[in-house]
Amino acid sequence: MELYRVFYTCAKEGSLTRAAEKLHVTQPAISHSIKQLEKSMGGALFSRVPKGVVLTREGAVLLEYIEQAFHYIALGEKKVAEMRQLLAGEVRIGAGDTLCKYILLPSLESFHDEHPAIKIKVTNRTTPESIALLKEGSIDFALVNLPVTDPQLEVDKVIEVHDCFFAGPRFEHLRNQKLSLDELLCLPLILLEEGSNSRQYLNSFMQQKGYRLEPEIELGSLDLLVEFARIGLGVSCLTREFVDHEGSTLFEIDLIEPIPPREIGIVKLKNVPLSEAAGAFIHSFFAM
């Protein structure tokens, strides 16, 4: 690389002496570098003239490509500098629909307002799918339902949430009553589909208590769980923190043995540095 830098400077300056001054080296060092390059190229690249040097035909051809190379190097250095200053770059995030809507969106809005040149790419996947994308290198980090136990991942806890059962007016007779798990499981249950971390957490809790869940309906999103409960098709397991109670006809069923709280967290690969943009986003996320 350094030989080409010497060649490029000599070609532009038309003088070995001026090239030496510009590169802050001695003229003999410049001459030696040019001889090394000419040897590797198999012929002369410069001809000496009274006022300095001029390119041979072969040297002129080489200069065309060297100029392009140095142009792209300069562009690359500029782009990296912009990324360091958050004037360019991209943040790639994995998150499920619910976590994206209730936790990620406020941070996305404020980060975009502060860094409008940073591209933001959000991939909607379940927690296991987001972790798979993370390991593939397709995303920088993921917002997931905990617990996640994986030696390849670094986990930062974000918020504690509570899974509860909610019902609509058709089950009004259950309001203000304390139900046992036996009584709960006699009701038509509406749950998230198998495969999500939150469903696995609920399954694990019930198994520890000696029960096996047999839902009436399984759905793929929190919004659908809310709507199905609202029209009375059953009682839905929802995350209390993500239910809009204002103006809602839903009410929470009081359990004698409530489901223990779980946590939402950010996971990233251990020992893999984040880009400047991704690191800045996580910093602003926890600062909110």
Describe the structure.
Keywords: DNA-binding, Transcription, Transcription regulation. This is LysR family transcriptional regulator. Residues 1-56 form the HTH lysR-type domain. This protein has 288 residues and is α/β, with parallel strands linked by helices. It folds into three domains: 2-84, Winged helix-like DNA-binding domain superfamily/Winged helix DNA-binding domain (Arc Repressor Mutant, subunit A, Orthogonal Bundle); 90-159 and 264-287, Periplasmic binding protein-like II (D-Maltodextrin-Binding Protein, domain 2, 3-Layer(aba) Sandwich); 163-260, Periplasmic binding protein-like II (D-Maltodextrin-Binding Protein, domain 2). Helices cover 45% and strands 23% of the residues. The protein has ten helices and 14 strands. The chain has helices spanning 2-13, 16-23, 27-41, 57-84, 97-114, 127-136, 181-185, 197-208, 222-230, 276-287; strands at residues 46-49, 52-55, 90-95, 119-124, 141-145, 153-161, 163-167, 178-179, 189-192, 217-219, 235-239, 251-252, 254-255, 262-269. The strands form four sheets. Strands 4-3-5-14-6 form a five-stranded mixed β-sheet, with helices on both faces. Strands 10-9-11-7-12 form a five-stranded mixed β-sheet, with helices on both faces. Strand 3 (90-95), helix 5 (97-114) and strand 4 form a beta-alpha-beta unit. Helix 1 (2-13) crosses helix 2 and helix 1 packs across helix 3 (27-41). The longest helix is centred in the N-terminal third of the chain and has 28 residues, at 57-84. It is rod-shaped and about 105 Å long. The model has no long low-confidence stretch (mean pLDDT 91).
